[in-house]
Amino acid sequence: QVQLVESGGGLVQAGGSLRLSCAASGRTASQYCMGWFRQAPGKEREFVGATGWSGANTYYLDSVKGRFTISRDNAKNTMYLQMNSLKPEDTAVYYCAIHRTAFSWYNIWSRNEYAYWGQGTQVTVSS
């Protein structure tokens, strides 16, 4: 069993920054891709970005490229999402997740490929 706990959400003005953290326990996350997803009210959960098991490679939703940065610290079993230049349309509940297959990038943008999820953290960007 794997537990993922997100933290760092909050209320910020447009143009501001937040850093989310995702702490994993119960499994050595260093063997798995990890991803960030978000869900706004009335919308489907969407892929934001992902990092490979070493953290050397990342992949992002086009609308967040250049503004969001994913990193991970495998010694701490923790992944981060640094969000800069936030926009009101970034408002959502943000979830972290861990891929179901070790050492695999298969369909990393698909929520169906993630086996475990955190409880989510609210990010609200005011205009």
The average pLDDT value, as a whole number, equals: 96
Oligomerization status of the protein chains:
single chain
Structural class: mainly beta
Number of E-state strands: 11
Poorly predicted sequence stretches spanning 5 or more consecutive residues:
none
Please tell me how large the radius of gyration is: 13 Å
Shape: globular
Number of helices: 0
From N to C, what is the helix and strand string? EEEEEEEEEEE
Largest sheet: 7 strands, mixed
Percent helix, as a range, is under 10%
Q: Report the end-to-end length measured between terminal Cα atoms.
A: 40 Å
Strand content: over 45%
Task: Describe the model.
The protein is mainly β and about 130 residues long. It has no helices and 11 strands. It has strands at about 5, 10-15, 20-25, 35-40, 45-50, 60, 70-75, 80-85, 90-100, 115, 120-125. The strands form 2 sheets. Strands 2, 4, 5, 6, 9, 10 and 11 form a 7-stranded mixed sheet that branches. The chain has a 4-stranded antiparallel sheet with strand order 1-3-8-7, with no helix packed on it. The protein is globular. It starts with a strand and ends with a strand.
Topology, element by element:
Blueprint: E1 3-7, E2 10-13, E3 18-25, E4 34-39, E5 46-51, E6 58-60, E7 68-73, E8 78-83, E9 92-99, E10 114-117, E11 121-126
Kindly list the characteristics that best describe this protein.
globular, 49% strand, mainly beta, seven-stranded mixed sheet, 127 residues, 11 strands, four-stranded antiparallel sheet
Task: Describe the structure in brief.
The protein is mainly beta. The protein has strands at residues 3-7, 10-13, 18-25, 34-39, 46-51, 58-60, 68-73, 78-83, 92-99, 114-117, 121-126. It has no helices and 11 strands.
